[in-house]
From TrEMBL:
Motif annotated as Histidine triad motif, chain positions: 97-101
UniProt source species: Nitrosomonas aestuarii
Pfam families tied to this protein: DcpS_C
Residue span, HIT domain: 5-113
Active site, renumbered: 99
MF annotations from Gene Ontology: catalytic activity
Protein name: Histidine triad (HIT) family protein
Length: 113
């Protein structure tokens, strides 16, 4: 997708602090971190949001979710972390390329709705 900012990161047209990559996924630090640890896991395939996912994406979604604790621990989140997937306008999604936020801190994160 030409104008998708995360596709541009995937094509290395804009820089990002990558912390992981494989054939299906990459993970990089959020440019505007909400806590001391804040990174995003995205698929290499452009999928706009969770609402566009299909049955054929089941394995990819599972891989994204399972990567979260592995990378979170590597980033120092030994006592837990938060995963967020904002979906669509109501969900507050700003970048329409599927991504999981992983957010962690030394202290308990504030409650959220
Ligand atoms: P959303 O609201 O779509 O779930 O969150 C998008 C996230 O992408 C935001 O936390 C925002 O800070 C992050 N983001 C937006 N543009 C860039 C960018 O160019 N580079 C990086 N590393 N993160 C970005
Ligand atoms: Zn994209």
């Amino acid at each position: 997708m030409d104008n998708c900012i995360f596709c541009k990161i995937l094509r290395e047209e804009i820089p990002a602090q990558k912390i992981y990559e494989d054939d299906d996924l990459i993970a990089f630090n959020d440019i505007n971190p909400a806590a001391s640890v804040h990174f995003l896991i995205i698929p290499r395939t452009h999928i706009a949001s969770l609402m566009e996912c299909e049955k054929s994406d089941q394995q990819l979604l599972g891989k994204m979710l399972l990567l979260a604790p592995t990378l979170a621990k590597e980033q120092g989140c030994t006592d837990g972390f938060r995963t967020i997937i904002n979906t669509g306008r109501v969900g507050g999604q700003e970048v329409f390329h599927l991504h999981i936020h992983i957010i962690g801190s030394k202290d308990r994160l504030p409650a959220m709705i």
